[in-house]
Amino acid sequence: MSSGYSSLEEDAEDFFFTARTSFFRRAPQGKPRSGQQDVEKEKEAHSYLSKEEIKEKVHKYNLAVTDKLKMTLNSNGIYTGFIKVQMELCKSPQTSPNSGKLSPSGNGCMNTLHISSTNTVGEVIEALLKKFLVTESPAKFALYKRCHREDQVYACKLSDREHPLYLRLVAGPRTDTLSFVLREHEIGEWEAFSLPELQNFLRILDKEEDEQLQNLKRRYTAYRHKLEEALREVWKPD
In what residue span(s) does the Ras-associating domain sit (predicted)? Predict the structure, then answer.
């Protein structure tokens, strides 16, 4: 199965999604994209670090790169680079019948995406599905970050508004420190959490269950008292 990766020397854009052409949706005709929206998007993407901090981190990142997949910092403060996303799909997604594309089914299929620091998780998911001409809704899929700490592996589902390239920049280029995984929402949802997190969820559920039980007992106790008072009034001797 193809890894979805093409070397830079081959210059095959078939395997890459550039931020300029693949991620930004065109505005509907008659409704041009607002410049203010672009400004707000840039501010949101770069609210984490100052321009000097970004410049320093991009420089250190590129020094540590071993596969030529370096980041590029533009004069406007936006940077572009590459992320690798592993496909961990339990079933083959629905694709266009005449797509002629490889199916992203099974585990281990790796895709390299060229993205911008302004691109969100939601846009990355859409780009992956678009590459394989998957007809299913992007809402059925989720992007996870997988962190390796000592001998343990932690997985966390990313929100649609997070920026994967920023996470890549901060973590550095090593995929054994941070990697990205695409999964279906319906299957393997709880696998994204560590054992302590799952135990904490159980404690929260137990607490909520106890609170609901106590509330229910108080309601029925009050109701019983009212019935007993009513009965005493009915059977009160003349």
Answer: 79-187
